[in-house]
């Protein structure tokens, strides 16, 4: 079972083929609004712009299953609408709403939620059939030359789970249950230098930068502390959320100069359905076997941080 489900996740590898995981910048043309918008994207050839305000993401069966269930769940308003599978140049894509369509030169921020960024099954496979990776070793030493162990240095390679755990503890993933992956403000370059953004103070500084110190954005509108509290309530009651291990999923925050704002859940490539006897509360600390992901604990912390950033009335 483990092997077959991992195979399924491997088929979700949207980073195939090109320099894995180098963050690139990609222009996406939003056709209906006739402007070109620069968005932050892990560009691997896995996204295309579709017609009528849609976005095509390289097909992943696990992600398709999630979107199909989410379209029937109370979480539907918080995820991009899903429109099925389409083919381009013999490649299948999941078609979903492009969330930026109704914004005008938006600022966007991607926050990866949860305390764990790899699946439990990846840990099992890493033990049974370890495959140390040179690309991850290189990414590690680029950030901290002292990070690899003596053995890793000798191999010039690290296991993926070890790399992911190192990224978690270096950033706020372990301490706060979420991390800022990157953001881009209107007409500015992408800010992706958050690998070491770990403390509450560092996170607040980054969030403040993202909203240009305009904390009124955090008070009202669809990207605000009340809206996140609403999302939390819906998550706590959602059948989908109870029955899935949600790993590597992000909250996408968007705002623009007209005052439009929004927040959505995206990226369900590593969201896995649980066996029927298991249900998660998404707050209990993870121990191998319990499948907990810390998503709601991270959202609690994010809400708390935003609350503290609100202007005093
Ligand atoms: O952010 P950096 O430090 O570059 O590390 C990346 C991210 O964790 C990716 O997760 P996400 O896609 O959620 O951003 C992950 O993809 P997976 O989704 O495949 O785990 C990559 O694994 P590889 O694709 O195996 O390299 C890993 O190298
Ligand atoms: N539906 C969407 N609408 C607009 N932008 C999106 C949408 N989905 C993803 N993106 C953009 O693409 C980036 C990568 O998306 P994600 O689903 O996390 O891909 P990956 O699985 O390759 O990491 C996000 O940070 C966001 O900027």
TrEMBL record:
GO biological process, one term: inositol phosphate biosynthetic process
Known EC number: 2.7.-.-
Recorded catalytic activity of this chain's protein: 1D-myo-inositol 1,4,5-trisphosphate + ATP = 1D-myo-inositol 1,3,4,5-tetrakisphosphate + ADP + H(+)
Tagged with keyword Endoplasmic reticulum: no
Gene Ontology CC terms: cytoplasm; nucleus
Keywords: ATP-binding, Kinase, Membrane, Nucleotide-binding, Transferase, Transmembrane, Transmembrane helix
Transmembrane segments: 30-49
GO terms of molecular function: ATP binding; inositol hexakisphosphate kinase activity; inositol-1,4,5-trisphosphate 3-kinase activity
Family: Belongs to the inositol phosphokinase (IPK) family.
Name of this protein: Kinase
Organism encoding this protein: Labrus bergylta
């Amino acid at each position: 079972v483990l092997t077959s489900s991992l195979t399924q996740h491997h088929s979700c590898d949207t980073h195939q083929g090109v320099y894995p995981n180098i963050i690139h910048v990609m222009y996406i043309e939003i056709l209906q609004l006739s402007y070109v918008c620069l968005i932050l994207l892990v560009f691997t050839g896995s996204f295309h712009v579709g017609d009528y305000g849609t976005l095509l993401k390289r097909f992943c069966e696990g992600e398709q299953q999630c979107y199909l269930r989410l379209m029937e769940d109370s979480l539907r308003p918080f995820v991009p609408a899903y429109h099925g599978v389409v083919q381009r140049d013999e490649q299948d894509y999941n078609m979903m709403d492009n969330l930026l369509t109704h914004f005008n030169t938006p600022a966007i921020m991607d926050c990866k939620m949860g305390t764990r960024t790899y699946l439990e099954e990846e840990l099992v496979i890493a033990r049974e059939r370890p495959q140390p990776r040179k690309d991850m070793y290189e990414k590690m030493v680029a950030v901290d030359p002292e990070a690899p162990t003596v053995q890793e240095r000798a191999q010039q390679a690290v296991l993926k789970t070890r790399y992911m755990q190192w990224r978690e503890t270096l950033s706020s993933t372990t301490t706060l249950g979420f991390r800022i992956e990157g953001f881009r403000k209107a007409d500015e370059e992408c800010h992706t230098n958050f690998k070491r953004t770990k403390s509450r103070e560092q996170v607040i500084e980054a969030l403040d930068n993202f909203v240009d110190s305009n904390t009124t954005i955090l008070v009202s509108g669809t990207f605000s502390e009340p809206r996140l509290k609403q999302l939390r309530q819906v998550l706590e009651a959602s059948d989908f959320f109870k029955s899935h291990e949600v790993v590597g999923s992000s909250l996408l925050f968007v705002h623009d100069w007209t005052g439009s704002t929004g927040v959505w859940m995206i990226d369900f490539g590593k969201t896995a359905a649980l066996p029927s006897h298991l249900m998660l509360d998404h707050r209990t600390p993870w121990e191998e076997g319990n499948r907990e992901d810390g998503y709601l604990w991270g959202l609690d912390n994010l809400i708390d941080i935003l609350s503290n950033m609100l202007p005093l009335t």
